[in-house]
Design goal:
Shape: globular
CATH class of the largest domain: Mainly Alpha
Number of strands: 12
Low-confidence stretches: 269-278, 294-327
Distance between the termini: 28 Å
Radius of gyration: 21 Å
Number of domains: 2
Helix content: 40-55%
Strand order of the largest sheet: 1-5-7-8
Order of helices and strands: EEEEEEHEEHHHHHHHEEHEEH
CATH superfamily of the largest domain: CRISPR-associated endonuclease Cas1, C-terminal domain
CATH architecture of the largest domain: Up-down Bundle
Mean pLDDT: 82
Strand content: 5-15%
CATH topology of the largest domain: Four Helix Bundle (Hemerythrin (Met), subunit A)
Number of helices: 10
Largest sheet: 4 strands, mixed
Oligomer: single chain
Length: 392
């Protein structure tokens, strides 16, 4: 179970075998540690010493973020003790042939999912421009496997992202004022939600990497740097279009998010009132045609379940389509809408679909863990090729 705590001024304390989330004399939640996998704390949330000890003893990943979702740090379970696996990860960084192939496979997965999503937009919206974007990205795939250096692979990823986001606006049924990917800071509602959800996705991928026993730092596509989770950023790429981007379309097209849910953050702005807690009252974000995954093998029907890390540069690799600091005020979600985005993200990750590589129905959350395990097999040499998750 993953818990999000966002009510400002709350405190987590130990009481008996359980943890309580309190504010003053009021108890908001009772947390049963045997059910917990991860806690995400947004903003001014305190943890007492005894409660912190409980979290560490039970290996519960505890993630600290700003009130609006920017990653600050985490208290995690001990690192994997498999020093031989980690040694092999670092050794393969110097194997140019292996590194180049891994980078190509990762980018191919991302570009393929971008093509699929653009084609869905073309069919569902009757948009020829989206089809043109899909064809342009598909042409990049033809050249990608001829690339002779990782820098060249990064260039293909960057050009693909530029084409993709130039057609991204066609996926919305209404006017969202989205024109391009802007990160630092996000200056429109769509970019604000994209950045937030990419941070949520990064935390899930990080957890999957740890579950697989891998070191999160050495990656092949993203340049290794001091403190950068390059492997996490690599494995995120295939899930960006399939999980986050389709969810963003659903949030706006289903009117889960509207213009009144956002505000410009100006200096000395007054704080917002507290919002609602996580709930299931939002529409079915998985019912949007752009976000459907694949067919249920058992009944041949589409499954319809009540369907930034500090300077980690999680949105791009060199050359990708994202602007730099704009000088404009950032756009932020209001607290109530923030809760709806969290609920929608969890609903998206808990939706079941048939996943051919595993031969069974899985959730997106399960597939993220499965893919990290497949990546480990390639590192260990028990599998020859890394196959990214492909949106069908």
């Amino acid at each position: 179970m993953i818990i999000y705590i966002k009510s400002q001024g709350t405190k987590i304390i130990k009481e008996g075998r359980h943890l309580l989330v309190k504010k003053g004399n009021d108890t908001y939640h009772t947390l049963f540690t045997y059910k917990l996998d991860q806690i995400l704390l947004f903003g001014n949330i305190e943890i007492t010493h005894n409660a912190l000890c409980v979290l560490m003893r039970n290996n519960i990943d505890t993630v600290y973020l700003t009130r609006y979702g920017r990653y600050l740090g985490r208290i995690a379970s001990p690192e994997s003790k498999n020093v031989f696996l980690h040694k092999r990860q670092y050794k393969l960084l110097d194997d140019n042939k292996f590194a180049l192939k891994m980078a190509k496979d990762i980018v191919a997965g991302k570009l393929t999912n971008m093509v699929t999503l653009m084609m869905r937009i073309k069919r569902s919206r009757g948009c020829r421009n989206a089809g043109d974007k899909a064809r342009q990205i598909r042409k990049l795939l033809n050249g990608l496997y001829e690339a002779e250096t990782i820098d060249s692979v990064r260039g293909y990823e960057g050009r693909g992202a530029a084409i993709y986001f130039s057609g991204f606006c066609h996926g919305f049924t209404g006017n969202t004022n989205f024109t391009k990917r802007v990160r630092r800071p996000p200056t429109d509602p769509v970019n604000s939600v994209l950045s937030l959800l990419y941070t949520f996705l990064m935390n899930r991928v990080y957890s999957a990497v740890r579950i697989a026993g891998l070191d999160p730092y050495p990656g092949f596509l993203h340049v290794i740097d001091y403190g950068r989770y390059s492997l996490v950023l690599d494995l995120m790429e295939e899930f960006r279009p399939a999980v986050v981007d389709t969810l963003v379309f659903s949030l706006f097209n289903l009117k889960i998010l509207q213009e009144t849910d956002f505000r410009f953050e100006v200096p000395a702005a007054s704080s917002d009132p507290e919002g609602e807690t996580l709930n299931d009252s939002i529409p079915d974000v998985n019912a949007d045609t752009l976000g459907m995954m694949t067919l249920n093998k058992e009944n041949n029907k589409e499954v319809q379940n009540n369907f930034d890390i500090p300077e980690q540069k999680i949105d791009t690799v060199p050359g990708a389509a994202a602007s730099h600091v704009t000088g404009k005020y950032p756009v932020k979600l209001n607290p109530v809408a923030f809760g709806r985005v969290i609920a929608a993200f969890e609903k998206k990750l808990s939706a079941f679909f048939y996943y051919p590589p595993a031969g069974k129905n899985m959730t997106y959350g399960d597939v993220i863990i499965y893919q990290a395990a497949q990546y480990r097999k390639v590192i260990e040499g028990t599998a020859e090729t890394y196959q990214p998750m492909i949106l069908k």
